[in-house]
Amino acid sequence: MRKLNLRTVAIWYVAIMIYLFQKRKYWFVILCFAFLYLVLVGRLLYLMVYSSENLSKKALDVEQRERSIKAARGLIYDRNGVVLADNVAVCTISVIYSQVTEPEKVIQLLSDQLSMDEDEVREKVEKVSSREKIKSNVSKEIGDAIRQAGLAGVKVDEDYKRYYPYGDLASKVLGFTGSDNQGILGLESRYDDVLQGTDGTILTLTDFMGIEVESAAEE
């Protein structure tokens, strides 16, 4: 059966109006139809013109999720070009409940690799959520080992942590960074807007419940 479009509906509406117009005793019905038609047209105009941008954004919010990618913090050198403040790659380990197919293997792997209590890991792995963080600031070597295990539902995102090659040398001058990689005290704080860089994002596809789609492309 052919699907009716807006033009077909309008033609049928006009035909009915002409027929009813010829039957003068149906004036009240005509007015009711006219009023309903105007309401329908007004609603369509509102949705298609005034609310189109907002509705498009809501649709994207439903089918996409953003994960932040922290920028590598700028390096600090001395006058001879020696690095006094560097970055070291770390990882954040998380799980997606709907994608985990072998929960016992995931629990065993994460508790062993991350040196965490098995009950604590089990509670997070079995928690029904779109994405559950297990541990952050994990060394890249351990992160790579977890990734290479290839267990479904386990996600490894790379991040950066501040590293000072000379330990406490000139620490009062250099300052330090907090857990969010923001400068605290010293040069780290004074030039934070220059050193912090610009974070990026990863866009992933999600289903109607907001759960990331397995094996979907990431941008």
Task: Give a written overview of the molecule.
The longest helix is centred in the first third of the chain and has 24 residues, at 27-50. 43% of the residues lie in helices and 22% in strands. It starts with 5 loop residues before the first helix and ends in a 14-residue tail after the last strand. The strands form three sheets. Strands 2, 3, 4 and 5 form a four-stranded antiparallel beta sheet that branches. Strands 1-8 form a two-stranded antiparallel ribbon. It has a two-stranded antiparallel ribbon with strand order 6-7. It is α+β, with helices and mostly antiparallel strands and 219 residues long.
Tell me about the biggest sheet? 4 strands, antiparallel
Estimate what percentage of residues fall within beta strands. 15-25%
Q: What gross morphology would you assign?
A: elongated
Task: Give the ordered list of helices and strands.
Answer: HHHEEEHHEHEHEEHHE
Q: Kindly state the percentage of residues in helix.
A: 40-55%
Task: Tell me briefly what this model is.
The protein has 219 residues and is of the alpha+beta class.
